[in-house]
Task: inverse folding
């Protein structure tokens, strides 16, 4: 099936992506965070979910969330605070992304 046959708008995928970002294996959480990145701009609910991903146990998930949030919401005070806390992350990649 090609994407042209999909009837779901990207914003409608946010609830499912939020669940995937919290309740699946690390790789799926990373992919959900990256997918949220593409649809989250201007959506507070999606941004909050991604901010929570900054505290994930998996450094790859934290990295994806930090990189995405820095790109889509660099002036949002909530996001700036959350990213500032990741500047002390134990993982080099997460610190750089933040």
Result:
């Amino acid at each position: 099936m090609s994407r042209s046959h999909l009837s779901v708008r990207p914003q409608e995928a946010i609830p499912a992506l939020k669940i995937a970002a919290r309740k699946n294996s690390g790789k799926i959480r990373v992919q959900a965070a990256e997918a949220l990145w593409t649809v989250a701009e201007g959506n507070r609910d999606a941004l909050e979910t991604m901010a929570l991903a900054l505290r994930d146990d998996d450094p790859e998930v934290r990295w994806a969330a930090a990189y995405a949030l820095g790109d889509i919401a660099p002036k949002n005070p909530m996001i700036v605070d959350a990213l500032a806390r990741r500047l002390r992350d134990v993982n080099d990649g997460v610190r750089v992304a933040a």
Q: What stands out?
A: Residues 36 and 46 are 6 Å apart (CA to CA).
